[in-house]
Amino acid sequence: MHLEIxxxxxxPINPDEVVFGANMTTLTFALSRGLxxxxxxxxxxxxxxxxxxxxxxxxxxxxEVDRFNANLNQIISAAKL
Length: 81
Fold this sequence. Notes:
By secondary structure, this protein is α+β, with helices and mostly antiparallel strands. Helices cover 38% and strands 12% of the residues.
């Protein structure tokens, strides 16, 4: 039995909703690149620093690409984890 199958048996989710990858940073960079191709002018991405830094870093890196059409906004929060 594969690790993925054992993992699925432990939590009540659909196996199609789980992605295994090298690490959070790699997965988030791949996701942001894929979603960025579908963004249109005026679309907006709202981020916070409360999550994993890979999320903020992947979208921030895309801002440097000329083809990136969306607005990237950060929520500055006093909240702490």
